[in-house]
Structures are given as C-alpha cells and as structure tokens.
Specification:
Two copies of one chain form a homodimer. Chain A is an alpha/beta fold. The first copy, chain A, contains eleven helices and 14 strands. In chain A, helix 2 (73-81) links the parallel strand 4 (62-65) and strand 5. The longest helix of chain A is centred in the C-terminal third of the chain and has 21 residues, at 275-295.
Chain lengths: 325, 325
C-alpha cells in the first residue's frame, strides 16, 4: 500500500512514523506547499511540491491529507478526491455534514473512495459512542478530554498582547468523572466537566495582571471554565511543556432489565504521549481500509462508522479469528 | 426487525429485554426444548417448542441462539443456519475457527447470514483488541476479567461433596492493572493477573477444611490462582450474591516515534450489573446488523470484525454523522 502525505507538520510526521511501523505500508512521497528543498523528512521519504502531486498519480494508492480543518481541508479534500483516494482528519464537528457532502460529490463523480474525520475525536471516540449507544439505547454519553494540550487554546493565549509563548492543558475534573462512572447520569455544566491550566511566558515588562484577566475572561475559550494561569520562563516552558500529550474518556452509562434495574458502564480511555503521532497512526490504519474498500469497488465518502474493523488490520480473517476474537 | 429467541435461560431473557428497549426490534417467539406451556416470558412473548421453529419461518428475520458453547451451539448454530439468519455467542476461544467453518458452510449453502461469537468477550473486547492492534502495532494487549461471577467456576465448586451452593468471583489484581497502565509492558503470570473469591454454603456437618482444600487445589480452575474461600449461610448467599455482575478491561499499550519514545495507552472497560442482560443487548444489536447485511445480499458466516459499526445502530448515516461523529 502506497501512501502520500499531503502537508508536513506534526500530523504529517505522525503518519510517516506510523507507516514505518507497518510493513505493508510505504510512503512514496511527502507533498508540501513550502519549498520542498527546505524540508527534511524523518525517515528519508522524498519531498515534492504540493502542485506536482498529479505527476505522481501512478505511485499513490491513498493520499493522507494533513491540513487544518479551519481553512485547508474544506477545499483540499474535495479537490484531491477528484484524482485520488483520500483520508482526512476534519474535526470541526458542526461542519461535518457539509464537508461530507462536498467530499462525497467529488469522490462519487471521480470514482474514488474518501474517508473524512479520522483520528481519535472524531474517530475512535465516535466509534465508542456509536457502539455504546447501539448496545445500551437507554443511556447517556459523556466525553471528557485531557489531560492534554489544546493547540487552539494555546494559540488564543499567544495572541494576547504581552504574551511571548503559552501552553494550555485541558483537564477533566475528577469529581465529574466519578459522578459519571457511578451510573447516576448527572447533568454537568461546562465548568463542572473540565478545567483549563495555562502556562504563560510573558514579554519583559508586560502587565501580568492584565494578561491573566484577558485569559480568564476570554469568551468561548475560557470564560465558562475554572482557569488557572501560571507565569513561567521560556526555559521552563521548553523543559516541562515541550510535548503534545492528550487523551480523554468516553463514558456511556445505561440500564437494562424489566424496570431498568441494572446499570452498566462502558468506558473508553486514551492516554497519549503524542497527540499527532497517535492521530497519524489512526489515519494510516484508515488509509489501509480505504485502499481495500476502493479495490472492492465501493466509491464515495465514508467515515469510521462505515469501515468494518477487519479492514483496518493487516491480518487475514483467519488470523484475526484465531488470535484476537 | 423480527427476532426469535432460541433457548430461554438468563441470556434469552436478556435478548428479550433488549428488544423491548429498541423500538425497531420485535421478538416474535421464544423457542424452548422445555415444555412451552410451563414457561412464562418477561414481556409476554409467545413460547413455542424448539422443534416447531420451521413452522414460524415467515415470522422470523434472525434467530438469536441462546444455548451453551460446550454442547449446544456446535450443533445448533449450523443446523439453524440451514434455514435462518442466526446470531450466537459461542465463547470457547480455542474452537472458534472450527465453529466458524461449520457455520459458514451451512450458511453459504443455504444463502443465509450468520454471526458467531457475539457478546462482550468474545465480542466487544475482541473489537477493542483489533482496533488497538491496528493503530499501535508496536504494542501489547492485556485482558482482565471481573470483578464478576464466573458461572463455570461456581459450578465447579458446587460439584464438590458437602457443597450446597457457591458463588465464585474473578477479581483483577489492582497492582497488575496499574503495572499495565504504566506502559511498561510487564509479563504477568496467571496468579499475578487475577485472584479468585469463593463464597460457599456447606451442607450441615460437612468437612469445611476438606472443601476448602478441594477448591484451592482444583487443577485448571483454582490451583494457579490465589483463592480465598469464605463459608456463608444460604440466606447470606441469596441476600449478597444473587446477581450476575461482570466486566473487565482490555488494555493495549504501545509506542510511536522515531525511536519508540512516545507511549500510548488504550483502555476499554466494562462494569456490568448483569452479564446476561448486557450480552443480550449486544446480541440484539448484532442481529440488527445481520438482518441489514443479509438484505444487501451477503451470505455466509461473519464475526464482529466484519460488521461496519453503522449497521449496529438504528440511526441513519446522516443522523450518526451529525450526532455521534
């Protein structure tokens, strides 16, 4: 299976590293909008200009598109689906139906196979929600994120005047997790579910009180949360907060019985040292599935919900039944 | 969707109750090898003799076979697959390949669709193992069961002379769980992973020391475990140990990165008040999928690995993408 990586940031590198861990997957090229000569890949994969990808069509089974959901993927994924089977990690939940429609139209017309919104949320967390709801329809879902770095919230802090750098962690509130696990199906506010931890490097002479106030009152990002702000040095940020850990919990509690007398809890939990490397690993497995599904003749847009689990694995049906069932 | 329940013990009742929670699923009959007149179903479903099921062929889309894996399912599932789409919960892991082959042959010949080994292990736990291995091939799986009642081990204790009744709980060892979650990929012995708790009602005048010795030294069942035996009264057993709780953990830890420097943990956990009602709920959702897959023209034997998650849900693709992705 020959993958192309389109866009080479943290996520693109994650896909490249995932391919190196899977003997049946080869990366035949990294495609970038930057100067290809200025890029060095981790495993020595050749780098080409993004606008030359059609010249490499015969070397590519699936393009894994590693762009951003806000401005890149809404046009990149439909455009690339006109010529390639594609996988993306589009994660703006509210816009998934519109993105699906655009990609599906392009893929149906071209006879290609696309999968959108791969990764862990959307992605593996979505699968957990679906399975749990199908098994226990009398129930409630709870999704918690963290402890992990939110890049969007870190960027929002960096835009505040006087801020040199920042790292924001989303942290699930332990009491909320325990209340959910108990099966009592509590109604939880935004503030009750997560708190936000901000580690901030200020410019010399900046007004720290003003920065803190700007953070904790920022609409949508912080105002509905209990937020802590800690000022640290640039050295401390590099030393203690260089990684991109993340993770979270999907917890579904539901009841069965003639009178709902039995409670069940289904919990799916991820603890990730590197968000982009884990996401890249999910995308590589999804690309394997897209290639197989395409070879069977199915075209159009899919999501993780449409992929039979066996198609994600390099093992045969016999091997899966003998060793993993 | 019209289901038949074939075999009416705890699991059959669990399927019946699951159908009551799903508006798109109806149970048109319970089929029993006992005297149908002597059975009363929980929700008033009609009861028929097992040998009359062919007379009801037009009223049944899928038969959910609720027999035992040791002696019932190896012949029941292939035989019923000659006339019906079927789902079973065959759980003798070592014999799954042979059972699959027998059911597949019958279903292919008859043009029916069968799914074997549904439930939670095999079933949901198997799915967790497959997904985790496909995402993180450089990793290790650990499955823990409990805290929950093992019917097989409870039965084994009841066969000891002087034992009137017994309940055996399988309990995961907390230290082993923590070692696994740490990502250190420990090698664990049987004794290190689980311990066994036995609650025993002895006959009047029985030799308690002899019973305890017979339990803790019993080959395969108890000799490789740390086992505790506590003698209680019949009233205490009824009061404190009447339920059939179960559950467990599938934990996969694996690494990514150029030098395996990032560790990730994927954990799937079930905490179930009623093992048979949860298993019945899984089988009902799988029966929904089998009916859909059959209507699309696919025949033969499947497992959970072959079912696209969307087929388990009563929601449409649009609804799933809008609300659960």
């Amino acid at each position: 299976m020959r993958l192309a990586v389109y866009g080479y940031g943290n996520l693109g590198r994650g896909v490249e590293l995932a391919a190196a861990a899977n003997p049946d997957i080869e990366i035949t090229g990294v495609f970038t909008r930057r100067d290809p000569a200025a890029l060095q890949t981790v495993t020595g994969v050749p780098v080409y200009g993004a606008d030359t990808i059609l010249e490499h069509k015969d070397e590519i089974d699936v393009v894994v598109i590693c762009g951003g959901s806000a401005t890149d993927l809404p046009f990149m994924t439909p455009a690339l689906a006109e010529n390639f089977c594609v996988v993306d990690s589009f994660d703006t939940h509210a816009n998934i139906p519109a993105h699906f429609a655009a990609v599906n139209e392009a893929a149906e017309k071209a006879g290609t196979t696309a999968l959108i919104s791969g990764g862990w949320d959307p992605g593996m967390f979505s699968l957990s929600r679906l399975y749990a709801n199908a098994i226990l329809p009398e129930g409630s879902d709870y999704t918690f994120w963290g402890r992990g770095v939110s890049q969007g919230h870190s960027d929002a802090i960096r835009r505040i005047p006087g801020v040199k750098d920042a790292r924001q962690y989303t942290v699930p509130v332990p009491e909320a997790l325990e209340a959910v696990r108990s099966g009592s199906r509590p109604e939880l506010t935004t503030r009750q579910k997560h708190r936000r931890e901000c580690w901030v490097v200020a410019e010399d002479g900046a007004d720290l009180a003003a920065i803190e106030k700007a953070i904790v009152t920022m609409p949508n990002y912080f105002d509905e949360y209990d937020t802590t702000v800690t000022f640290i040095t640039e050295e401390e940020l590099q030393r203690d907060h260089a990684g991109l850990p993340h993770g979270g919990f999907v917890i579904h509690t539901g009841t069965t019985g003639a009178n709902g007398e039995h409670t069940h809890t289904i919990e799916y939990r991820l603890t990730l040292d590197s968000n982009p490397e884990f996401t890249g690993s999910v995308l590589a497995a999804l690309a394997r599935a897209v290639d197989r599904i395409h070879r069977r003749g199915r075209t159009g847009c899919l999501t993780v919900f449409d992929v039979a689990p066996a198609d994600l694995s390099p093992l045969s049906g016999e091997e899966l039944r003998a060793h993993l069932l």
